[in-house]
Amino acid sequence: MRRRFIAGNWKMFNGPSATSEFMSAFVPKLASSEDIASNINKGMMEVAVFAPFVSLDAATKGKEGSPLIVGAQNMHWEKSGAFTGEVSAPMLKELGCTHVIIGHSERRHIFRETSEDLHKKLLAALEENLTPVFCVGELLEERESGSTFDVIRKQLMAGLKVMDGSDVADKIIVAYEPVWAIGTGKTASSEDAQEVCAFIRKLLADTFGEGVAEKTIILYGGSVKPENTASILSMKDIDGVLVGGASLKPDSFLGIAKAAVQ
Ligand code: PEP
To answer: I need a surface site. Which of 54, 96, 180, 198 has the fewest CB within 10 A?
Structure first.
């Protein structure tokens, strides 16, 4: 059985003070919620928050002693250099991060990150033993024109090109996030999300073999809330959720983790 991965993407919310407050409230709740704690201890579930760069220190300090994972939302592909405003994988590791989101749709569409940029970021994250959460997803017009699967195939394969199965199995988490469902309150139906996640698993199987595909954690993201989590996670190929808005408050994020207990 694959473990569940429950991830909160805070985007440009929760500065350092708000992050410390979140941790003070969330970490004890996570520890005292017996079903979640037991799932985490048995390796059946992981819970992660992806904080803004400036809040990572507060997040790693605030979670000390807790199995809560702290990750970043982006990184540069070079280790260091003249790249004003950028942050590298070794810097994230120094702060205690173990995971990093790569290719969130806001990075692709607002900041114009290309597939080649994202490929370089994936390789750089793997080189530093950071686990990338690699996001793929179609725009509304792409869904409406029937090109969802083409878009997903191109994004996934451009990101994972030149890799072999050992780079992917257990090392990369894939997140399917239809862009039209992010922050809009519109959730893909569980069946639609399953259809694309199954397609992703099939692509991984065709490219890297069944063994790699079976091990890979695939998330759904897009207006996930405590109320729709169980239905989404009842789908065979969806192993977890990437949550924006509903991860900002300890109680709603805890509600999502609770709904994910297996
Ligand atoms: C996200 O930020 O990846 C996301 C899915 O946001 P929301 O849950 O708010 O739709």
So the answer is: 54
Cα–Cα dist 96/94, whole Å:
5
**In DSSP terms, which residues pair with 48 in a beta bridge?**
7, 69
Over its length of 262 residues, how does the chain's per-residue pLDDT go in tens digits? 899 999 999 999 999 999 999 999 999 999 999 999 999 999 999 999 999 999 999 999 999 999 999 999 999 999 999 999 999 999 999 999 999 999 999 999 999 999 999 999 999 999 999 999 999 999 999 999 999 999 999 999 999 997 888 888 889 999 999 999 998 888 889 999 999 999 999 999 999 999 999 999 999 999 999 999 999 999 999 999 999 999 999 999 999 999 999 9
Taking CA atoms, 240 is separated from 3, 56, 85, in Å, by 8, 22, 32
177 is catalytic: yes
Query: Hey, what are 7's tokens?
Result: 């991830």
133: nearest Cα among 176, 164, 160, 172: 172
Annotated catalytic residue, options 46, 76, 99, 104: 104
For residues 188 and 181, the answer to whether their CB atoms sit within 8 Å is: yes
Ligand 1 pocket (Cβ < 6 Å) reads 9, 11, 177, 182-183, 221-224, 242-246
List, in order of start, the domains of the chain with CATH numbers.
4-259 (3.20.20.70)
